[in-house]
Amino acid sequence: MSAKSPDTVEWRVAEGQVPYRDALDTMDRRNRAIAAGEAEELVWLLEHPPVYTAGTSAAADELLDPRFEVVEAGRGGRYTYHGPGQRVGYVLLDLTQRGRDVRCFVHAIEGWVIDTLGDIGIEAWRAEGRIGIWTRDIDGREAKIGAIGVRVRRWVTMHGFSVNLAPDLSHFAGIVPCGIDEFGVTSLERLGIALAPEDWDAALQARFGDFLAALDNKRCVSAD
User: Fold this and answer.
1) In whole angstroms, how far apart are CA 56 and each of 24, 59, 152, 175, 216?
2) Which domains are seen in the chain, by residue range?
3) Residue 220 falls in the annotated catalytic set
């Protein structure tokens, strides 16, 4: 089956902060509609109020200080923080049109975020055995700048990625982010890059065709 054009995917940018539970409800409805052939695929860019989200592998001892609401997300992975200054991208694609390969989908999302960061001057990479998007922090150590977490239901994807533009990094101290406590968390702001959310969105959209091509053409390899 031939893949759809990028032009058939709806791009939505939320105004203001979207409560996390509201976003879950919206994703649930859209997932069902896409699977039923009643709606187009969707990329949804937004910010949340401060929240800790628990993936299906979250361990209780990794919730260190539940100073914010904790919500079971239904996605893969462990604990993640979302909040103001962090850009979240929810990607709802129909994998029946795009190869039915979840591993390839995750790899393609990672590459999309890495390439976009490269376009704005941040070298980033995958790290074998460590979930997320990594870069070099101001102290020279590796640090996480982006998180990946997905769910696939009825072969339609849900959730996606988050990238730290300028969040309050102290908020990550309430959890062990993604179960990895040996490395820190960083942001574009900490690395000296001031980038408005709309500029990040534009850079991301400029790479969207490359992302779909990698996914649709199965250009997916093991982690770099």
Assistant:
1) 15, 9, 13, 15, 27
2) 6-215 (3.30.930.10)
3) no
